[in-house]
Each structure stands twice: as structure tokens, then as C-alpha cells.
Amino acid sequence: MIRSAEAADVPAMLAIYGPYVTDTPITFDYEPPTEAAFTAKYNRITSRYPWLLLEEDGKILGYAYADRAFEKAAYAWCVEATVYLSPEATGKGRGRALYLALEEELKRRGLVLVYALVTATNEASLRFLAALGFRETGRLPASGWKQGKWHDVIWLEKRLASPELPPTEWHP
């Protein structure tokens, strides 16, 4: 089941995110956020953008959200998407279903372009996003220091809609 996240889901989402922080270079956080910090992030993002959960038998197995990609007003139709799954949820098509639900919500709201930034060594995410229609648009060489070495970041994008003149208003 895919549903909108709620503030009460923060501990379960944090439990999914924590190992990515402590054990991988997939995210460039060094320490898992506190529950209060993650709740503040959740509240900030959901005031304007969707945050979805993947839940099975009452257990949260993953989440996906979109956030503003850039601060300047002209970029209002662009977002950055993020997806995290628990280990038992990977490789079974669940991430795809979660992401596609997020994408549909973004389209419904009138957003036009979605970005993803992925550590270059995260081959599974790069394959996943390519299969969803993302294309690489840039590389940030040696831009993140984690786990004792520098990591490149791949910048990917996907058009959700053709740009209109003037753009349609999007709806938070």
C-alpha cells in the first residue's frame, strides 16, 4: 500500500534512513538526524510537496518525497526526488511503484521537471532511475567526502511534462 506519510511515521522512516547514513556513501549526511530534526524536515517539505510511504502489513518499508530543487522563483516547477527503501523491500518492484506514485502526484500538481542526485558508486540507483526514464545531465567530480574518500555525484533529470508558455500554475 502506498499512502501519504504522516508525522507519526517519522520514527519508522528514520529507522530506514539511519543505516544509509552510517553504513554507505549513498547520502552525504555523516550522522543520522535526530527525530526532531527529521520531523522539522518532514513538516517543511510536506507544507508544499508530497511525501509518500510504502507500507505492507502495517510495516513501513520505504518512503519517497520531492523537495524544491532550487531557491530562485524561476525554478518553481523543478523538484528533487528522493527514495529510500528498507533492505527487505529492494529488488521487488516496490521502489518503482513508490516512485511512480510520487511522479503521478508531481504531475497532478503541475510540476515539470524532476532531478535526482546520486553518488556515482550507487549503481543500483543509477540503473533504477535510468529504467524510469531519467537521463544523466552532469557529473560533480569528487564533490562529497565520506567514508575516507571522495565521491562523484551524478546529476539526472526527467521531464514530467512539456514546458508550456506561460507555465501552468502548480498546486502545493
Quick rundown:
The protein has 172 residues and is an alpha+beta fold. Helix content is 29%, strand content 33%.
The CATH architecture name reads: 3-Layer(aba) Sandwich
N- to C-terminal separation? 23 Å
What global shape is seen? globular
Helix content: 25-40%
CATH superfamily: Gcn5-related N-acetyltransferase (GNAT)
What's the total count of β strands?
A: 7
User: If you compute it from the alpha carbons, what radius of gyration comes out, rounded to the nearest whole angstrom?
Assistant: 16 Å
Order of helices and strands: EHHEEEHEHEE
Spans where pLDDT lies below 50 across 5 or more residues: none
CATH class categorisation: Alpha Beta
What is the count of DSSP helices, taking H or I runs of 4+ residues? 4
Spatially, the strands of the biggest sheet line up as 1-2-3-4-5-7-6
Main beta sheet: 7 strands, mixed
Total domains: 1
Mean pLDDT: 94
What amount of the residues lies in strands? Answer: 25-35%
Task: Summarize the structure in words.
The protein is built from 4 helices and 7 strands, in the order βααβββαβαββ. By secondary structure, the chain is an alpha+beta fold. It has one domain: Aminopeptidase, CATH 3.40.630. It has a 7-stranded mixed β-sheet with strand order 1-2-3-4-5-7-6, with helices on both faces. Strand 6 and strand 7 (149-159) form a beta hairpin. The two termini are 23 Å apart. The model has no long low-confidence stretch (mean pLDDT 94).
